[in-house]
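FAQ
Q: What does a multi-component entry look like?
A: The components come first, one per line:
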Amino acid sequence: MDVLYFAWVRERIGIPRETLDTSARTVAELVEELRGREDRYAAAFADLSALRVAVDQDLTDFDASLEGVREVAFFPPMTGG
Amino acid sequence: MDVLYFAWVRERIGIPRETLDTSARTVAELVEELRGREDRYAAAFADLSALRVAVDQDLTDFDASLEGVREVAFFPPMTGG
Amino acid sequence: MILRVQSEPFDLGAETDTFAKAQSGMGAVVTFTGIVRDLPGAGLDRMEIEHYPGMTEKALEKIASEAMQRWDLGDVLIIHRYGVLRPDDRIMMVATSSRHRADAFAAADFLMDYLKSRAPFWKKEFTSSGAEWVASKDTDEAALDRW
Amino acid sequence: MILRVQSEPFDLGAETDTFAKAQSGMGAVVTFTGIVRDLPGAGLDRMEIEHYPGMTEKALEKIASEAMQRWDLGDVLIIHRYGVLRPDDRIMMVATSSRHRADAFAAADFLMDYLKSRAPFWKKEFTSSGAEWVASKDTDEAALDRW
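Then the predicted structure of the entire assembly, as tokens:
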């Protein structure tokens, strides 16, 4: 599964994307797994209320299922326009 | 006093403007005076709810005073934009 | 405020670009353009727009000033044509600028509502079946109550 | 629907004119343009806009389609830039056309509200005192409840 990071999430983690093998069944489980990896992940995922998640390029919630999913992205609230 | 007519009011009366000597103290009195002149005026002023009036180029009501007024204009509701 | 009443066509693209360029510190520009629509059925040959010289300029000034007072705007542009117009011709445009988008949107919407029933223009439509003055709509008058 | 995500500048005047010309039977065209504002105090050197290629196009498509469904529109245009922008540069524009003015206004307003917090763009401001990601505003999220 490809995991993408944008804006300050990307800056805190230090990379724009990575490919992971994970047994996480939901986004929340994936977040837990990432948090446990290294401090930079723990820092990026410290406050979930400041984060948004997209699964296969659709905005969704942290309890979304990862079954069959190819791409997950984490980022702060968007500031388009 | 100059009296101006626009759109179908102008067409019914047949002229775009005229200069009148009048003792009318209000727009309503002026309308009464005009109605009494000729059929084409009576036709143009038959339904006041379909007319608007401007006094010295400001939209106003039929009970507006004509004291010191130089220009009165009658026309249908505006359709700008 | 830039207010123009004219019979000649105006260049929508150039006017929009020039207006936007002149804004300093404004994050938002909104424009509205009114275009002559062909009429279903009869087919519109032309539209003739009559106006009240003198009062028109006064009315535009009043409407634009009111918008400048109500919202935090950088500037307001109004261009309105009179005379003979054909389908697809541009009748008029307004432009507003503001620091935040809500002001520019509200002001442009307000300007259009007021131009519609408070600026002394009258439209007459000429079709193959005759000529008719465009009637004002009750909804146009009611729209003013929004403000 | 015309949807473009690009790093190059766009020609606001030409885009507006071309969009309006392409409309048939539409009486109203509304445009909104977002412009980089200088920052009071520190002074903005530049803004960098990051986006999520793939998802951005999908999001614009979804937002524009939603507008086409909700209102009686002729067409919708969205152009949004990413990359490095300086004060006075145009960030993005939308245009809408409709037979009656209320639809074009409402749709443009709707598009802006959704682009603001549902299109995957992130702005970072670089000033003499440092760099900072622009925070979303609670009012932007609240604005979506209007629709």
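Q: Is there any commentary attached?
A: Sometimes. For this entry: The radius of gyration of chain D is 16 Å.
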